[in-house]
Design a protein that fits this description.
718 residues; Quinone Oxidoreductase, Chain A, domain 1; Rossmann fold; 4 domains; nine-stranded mixed β-sheet; 24 helices; 34% helix; globular
């Protein structure tokens, strides 16, 4: 299928071939018939792509702060790789479409194939022939509503949510500053709700159109004494609410809003404008300044958008989906209409030229619609990216998943290894599969991972997906006779882990879990300071950092943070001690507004007599060392500080060792993976590999029961 993509680093925009996206259980595939171009938003994205790095940094100081925090936590090299990977990737455009459902996920009950729908959401309702969209971002188009107008539903929902935030009542005066598409739609909504609209814009043509939509006054601020006019229109009170829709670096809209608003009025921003609130003006009137969050409640909540969990209507009346439904009902009832706003209708296949014109032209673009041809082949989930002959080398890789970690810390290092070839890569979105296939040299890109399993030339599968997919993919991959590299965790529960253990034993295949720390230069040096077969007492503290409860990483479906991450640290201890856990006891610290697993204390007995505590803590300062290890035993004390500094206290002397950067071992890990698998060697002893995951599962059991739990590999053999 065809999709519009943008590369932020190169500033290029292309209409290119990508695989059809995967249909997940909580959503549907929609064949696009029309998509709406949000001219202001997408022009901004196009212009941002032309900026140099310094200009980008100045434009987005909040993102710069996030980068600096990443530098503090992970080191400058890791942060740089992540930033450059983000910039040098293709991303989608668009967020408001209409079309026809062609496939349903297993958890979708209220829709059927063939339904005409409006869909929304950045990253979902893209300018593409087919889109995957979660069910809460999809609404049926009522009979009598033009499907072309329906493509503007999501954009109109932004306007509607801003109007709701204004909290106006019948008869009140509402000003709209900025008369682009959002502003024009707002004028109609204000009128439909029994209020009086006052409109502001620098463009006389847009002001004229607002007047035609029912505005009682249409003002060009530079050409009139608007304060006097507003006073006359409102009996000297001023406007009851002001809604700002502009996208500008000027502070003028903020000042204008303050001047025309009455005492204690609501001022709502749904645009992107400079925000330097004049204290005296806003203080004396006691003005309420509010933001409007996109399409409504549910936005930025993955449990709502991705998980499909709705909010009870008795508690949250207007959600994203219900706002979209409201827009379509207003269209059906004739209370609003978008026909006058659609100034341009362009063939989707001419969209490259259109976006070039939008970026640089001074033409008055208002409502721009892309029209699609209704003949897309929905079976094309795999495309060839790099033409090549049959693959050479002992290791022929198929990769499933290409998130930020895999794309920055795995594939780039693996690409440097000799004696291997990249054959195919699978991701849920076609655009990401295509991007990573181009970047790393895979022959083909697909959205169906089973294509890789069926490829007889591929002998090794790499799995870097969300945690709940690991176990099933590992079992399937082993069952097709392929060796497996899988990111942690290997499994989420004892049944999954047992299935993998039995399958790998029967099929006699190689398996490796992404425990990279044992390959870190600092950890390897640390191991050399320990005496073999000597029990040690070890305190391993992880300053894990806060992750919001609504994140996918925290969900029970994904196993939570303990099973998801603590395997790293169990494996590191196994490596340092050359020993395996035999018993685990875990509890947690009660911390407000944080899941119990975020502050866990895990005590582990090892078969060499060592006793270790893993303190997995998420409420520390981000600048504090992410990992610290304190070791005591054999008349020795060792302090390990975040892969950078190690102090060894022995015989009354202190030996210090420092390491450049923050090397957690990923580069060496990929080297070991490539060499071991090429030679048919299991890199980590099989039972030990499984015991690290088993320990985390038993630790979670211990938290629930309050009891110590024995660890035995025979638990997986039953």
């Amino acid at each position: 299928m065809k999709q519009i993509t943008q590369n932020l680093k190169k500033g290029t925009l292309k209409l290119e071939e990508v695989p059809i996206p995967t249909c997940k259980s909580n959503g549907m595939l929609v064949k696009t018939l029309y998509s709406a171009v949000s001219v202001g938003t997408e022009r901004m994205k196009l212009k941002n792509a032309d900026m140099n790095y310094l200009q980008m940094a100045k434009a987005k100081p909040d993102q710069v702060k996030q980068v600096l925090e990443t530098v503090a936590q992970q080191g400058i090299k890791s942060a740089y790789r992540k930033v450059m990977n983000k910039l040098d990737s293709i991303s989608p455009l668009g967020y408001s479409c209409s079309g026809e459902i062609i496939k349903l996920g297993s958890n979708v009950m209220d829709f059927k194939v063939g339904d005409k729908v409006a869909i929304g959401g950045a990253g979902y309702a893209n300018h593409a022939e087919v889109n995957y969209v979660p069910k809460n971002l999809c609404v049926k188009i009522p009979d009598g509503v033009d499907i072309k107008e329906a493509s503007l539903t999501t954009i109109a929902s932004i306007a509607l949510q801003g109007f709701r935030q204004a909290e106006v009542q019948i008869g009140e005066n509402v000003a709209v500053i900025g008369l682009g598409l959002l502003g024009q739609i707002l004028i109609q909504m204000i009128h439909a709700n029994g209020c009086r609209a006052v409109s502001f814009d620098l463009d006389p043509l847009k002001v004229k159109l607002a007047k035609e939509q029912g505005a009682i006054a249409a003002i060009v601020p530079e050409k009139t004494d608007y304060s006097t006019e507003i006073s006359a229109l409102t009996n000297g009170y001023g406007c009851d609410a002001v809604i700002i829709t502009t996208g500008t670096s000027s502070n003028d809209p903020i000042i204008t809003a303050g001047k025309i608003a009455r005492d204690r009025a609501n001022i709502v921003d749904i645009g992107i404008t400079k925000m330097d609130l004049p204290w005296d003006l806003y203080y004396r009137k006691e003005l309420n300044f509010k933001f409007s969050r996109s399409y409504g409640p549910g936005r930025y909540d993955p449990t709502y958008e991705e998980g499909g969990n709705d909010y009870p209507i008795g508690f949250i009346r207007w959600t994203e989906q219900r706002n979209m439904e409201s827009i379509l009902q207003l269209l059906k009832d004739g209370q609003i209409s978008f026909k006058k706003f659609i100034t341009h209708e362009v063939d989707f296949y001419d969209s490259e030229l259109l976006f070039d014109q939008i970026k640089d032209s001074k033409e008055n673009y208002l409502g721009v619609i892309l029209k699609y041809i209704d003949n897309v082949d929905i079976s094309l989930n795999t495309i060839t990216v790099n033409e090549s002959d049959s693959k050479t080398g002992k290791l022929i890789i198929g990769a499933i998943g290409a998130g930020n970690y895999a794309s920055t810390m795995l594939y780039p290092f693996l690409k440097d290894q000799k004696g291997l070839s990249f054959k195919g890569i699978a991701t849920a979105t076609g655009i990401n599969a295509k991007d990573k296939a181009q970047k790393f040299g895979f022959d083909y890109a697909t959205t169906d991972y089973k294509t890789l399993l069926a490829d007889k030339e591929i002998n090794t599968i790499m799995i870097a997906t969300r945690h709940n997919q690991h176990a099933n993919m590992v079992v399937e991959g082993l069952g097709t006779g392929k060796n497996i590299y899988v990111e942690k965790p290997l499994a989420l529960n004892i049944n999954e882990l047992s299935d993998i253990y039995k399958t790998v034993t029967i099929n006699n295949r190689l398996i490796m879990v992404g425990y990279n720390r044992r390959y870190s230069p600092s950890i390897r040096w640390l191991k050399k300071q320990l005496s073999p077969s000597v029990p040690y007492s070890i305190y391993y503290q992880i300053n894990a950092g806060y992750i919001p409860p609504e994140s996918w990483y925290q969900s029970t479906e994904q196993g939570g943070r303990l099973v998801g991450e603590v395997g790293h640290f169990v494996d590191t201890l196994q490596y340092l001690l050359d020993a395996d856990p035999i018993e685990v006891y875990a509890n947690f610290c009660e911390t407000a507004n944080m899941p119990h697993q975020d502050n866990s204390y895990i005590t582990i007995k090892f078969d060499d007599g060592s006793n270790c505590v893993i303190a997995y803590l998420a409420d520390g300062d981000y600048k504090y060392s992410k990992e610290k290890i304190l070791i005591s035993g054999f008349q020795t004390n060792i302090e390990f500080d975040n892969f950078k500094n190690i102090q060894v206290f022995k015989n009354g002397k202190c030996t210090r060792k420092s390491f450049l950067g923050l090397d957690k071992g990923q580069k060496e890990e990929m080297k070991v993976f490539a060499n071991s698998f090429s030679e048919g060697i299991q890199p980590i002893e099989m039972d030990s590999l499984f015991i690290s995951t088993l320990t985390t599962i038993k630790a979670l059991e211990s938290i629930k029961t309050g009891l110590p739990i024995k660890i035995n590999i025979t638990d997986l053999q039953d």
